[in-house]
């Protein structure tokens, strides 16, 4: 699970470059998830880093249909200078991708079946010709 989650993060990062679409990240993550027979939590997304911590664009970590890409805005292209996070959450083979957040602290989140999940995250900067990872 951990190796797959880290691989999904790396695949998502590799999909980022000027001119690539936001949906390329979800496609790259989905390929890793499928290869390992796991699931990805779709409720949580990566996001832009700007004057507000959770700024646009939203970065989805799952594959989307053409209509979803238009409705979610993931058909849009990366441009140099954007800072954003890539942070897919993978769940164990056969586990639920649905989650619930604790009412006690409004932060702690678990899968509804109590299954294992793993997440790795980096903040990246889109630069001419590619991407720089800012949080290594």
Q: Radius of gyration, rounded? A: 15 Å
Question: Main β-sheet, in a few words?
Answer: 3 strands, antiparallel
Count of runs of 4 or more consecutive helical residues: 3
Contiguous uncertain segments of 5+ residues:
none
Question: H/E order of the elements?
Answer: HHEEEHEEEEEEE
Quantity of strands, as a count: 10
- Strand portion, in percent? 25-35%
Described by its quaternary structure, the protein is: single chain
Structural class: alpha+beta
Helix content: 25-40%
Mean pLDDT: 93
For the largest sheet, list the strands in their spatial order. 1-5-8
Give the CA-based shape: globular
Distance between the termini: 21 Å
Quick description:
It contains 3 helices and 10 strands; from the N terminus they run H-H-E-E-E-H-E-E-E-E-E-E-E.
Give an overview of the whole structure:
- The protein has helices at residues 2-14, 22-36, 66-72; strands at residues 39-40, 46-48, 55-59, 83-86, 89-91, 99-101, 109-111, 117-119, 122-127, 130-133.
- It has 136 residues and is an alpha+beta fold.
- The strands form four sheets. A three-stranded antiparallel sheet has the order 1-5-8, with helices on one face. The chain has a three-stranded antiparallel sheet with strand order 4-9-10.
- Helix 1 (2-14) runs antiparallel to helix 2.
- The longest helix is centred in the first third of the chain and has 15 residues, at 22-36.
- The protein is globular.
- The chain starts with a helix and ends with a strand.
Strand-helix topology:
Layout: H1 2-14, H2 22-36, E1 39-40, E2 46-48, E3 55-59, H3 66-72, E4 83-86, E5 89-91, E6 99-101, E7 109-111, E8 117-119, E9 122-127, E10 130-133
Antiparallel strand pairs: 1-5, 2-3, 4-9, 5-8, 6-7, 9-10
Helix pairs in contact: 1-2
């Amino acid at each position: 699970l951990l190796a797959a989650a880290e691989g999904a993060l790396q695949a998502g990062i590799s999909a980022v470059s000027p001119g690539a679409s936001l949906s390329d990240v979800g496609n790259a993550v989905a390929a890793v998830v499928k290869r390992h027979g796991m699931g990805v939590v779709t409720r949580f997304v990566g996001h832009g880093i700007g004057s507000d911590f959770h700024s646009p664009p939203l970065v989805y970590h799952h594959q989307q249909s053409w209509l979803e890409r238009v409705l979610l805005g993931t058909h849009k292209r990366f441009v140099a200078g954007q800072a954003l996070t890539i942070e897919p959450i993978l769940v164990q083979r056969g586990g639920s991708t649905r989650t619930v957040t604790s009412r006690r602290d409004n932060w702690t989140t678990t899968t509804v079946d109590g299954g294992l999940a793993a997440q790795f995250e980096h903040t990246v900067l889109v630069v001419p010709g590619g991407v720089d990872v800012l949080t290594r």
